[in-house]
Amino acid sequence: MQRKKAYIDARVKQANINRGIIVLLTGNGKGKSSSALGMVCRALAYDMRVVMVKFLKGMQDSGEDIFFARQKNVQIISMNTGFTWDTQDKELDKKMALETWQQAKQYLKNQSIDLLVLDELTYMLNYQYLDEQIVLDTLNKRPKNQHVIITGRAANKNLVAIADTVSKIVDIKHAFRANIKAQKGIDW
Ligand code: ATP
Ligand code: MG
Predict the structure, then answer these.
(1) Is the beta carbon of 62 within 6 A of some atom in ligand 1?
(2) pLDDT (tens digit, 0 to 9) for every residue of the chain, 188 residues total?
(3) Residue 151, ligand 1, Cβ within 6 A
(4) How many other CB atoms sit within 10 Å of the CB of residue 42?
(5) E strand map for the chain
(6) Using one digit for the tens of pLDDT, what is the confidence trace for 115-141?
(7) Which residue ranges make up each domain of the chain?
(8) Which of 37, 47, 69, 169 is the most buried (most CB within 10 A)?
(9) Does ligand 1 have an atom closer than 6 angstroms to the CB of 57?
(10) Please, which residues have CB within 8 angstroms of residue 120's CB and are 6 or more apart in sequence?
(11) pLDDT digits (tens, 9 = 90+) for 56-83
């Protein structure tokens, strides 16, 4: 344990770089967006300015939409409802993805935003609704101290490459498969 402590102390001393990071949360298991929300809570506690851009919006508000409406320093931008999984109208979905990205892009140039969450962004890239190279370049050119959290399944290798911290959540079990309804406060 003493050797371990010495090693960890040395590593902590070595970590002397301070800058904004990209955290990428991917995988099929539950916990990506809610993990992002946990970090939003942490940031808000320090009066950091936070924006969450949701690239997929459910039919109803989630707990965070209701809660954040009561908080200062945090704003949620949602893609218009109507975005469908079984894309009836792919062109319309693409248009909405682009509109939402235009907003996200402004925040990625805004130094006063300390933390930007791009929730479910991976799908927009995987469906090729957004130009991946433009998204990657904009992320790379963001203000030096701005943190970005990206969530969504099946993050591709280019997103993994530009992220600083990447976690893949493994789906071992999900209550829904045992026919349990999505639960308030847990799933939405
Ligand atoms: P959460 O928002 O709960 O952290 P997530 O962001 O990891 O979930 P998404 O793919 O965005 O996962 O799905 C959001 C919703 O779908 C949540 O209600 C979540 O509980 C549910 N969900 C997530 N993973 C699974 C799964 N493997 N099987 C069934 N439902 C899931
Ligand atoms: Mg999610």
Answers:
(1) no
(2) 889 889 999 989 899 999 999 999 999 999 999 999 999 999 999 999 999 999 987 778 899 999 999 999 999 999 866 556 556 788 888 899 999 999 999 999 999 999 999 999 999 999 999 999 999 999 999 999 999 999 999 999 999 999 999 999 999 999 999 999 999 999 99
(3) yes
(4) 12
(5) 22-26, 50-54, 74-78, 115-119, 147-151, 165-168
(6) 999 999 999 999 999 999 999 999 999
(7) 16-171
(8) 37
(9) no
(10) 33, 54, 55, 56, 151, 152
(11) 877 788 999 999 999 999 999 998 665 5
Q: Which fold has domain 16-171?
A: Rossmann fold (3.40.50)
Cβ of 63 closer than 6 Å to ligand 1, yes or no, is no
Q: Compute how many other C-beta atoms are within 10 angstroms of the C-beta atom of residue 73.
A: 16
Give the ligand with the smallest distance to the CA of 181.
1
**If you take atom 31 of ligand 1, which residue's CA is the nearest one?**
30
Nearest to 31 by CA among 176, 128, 135, 168: 168
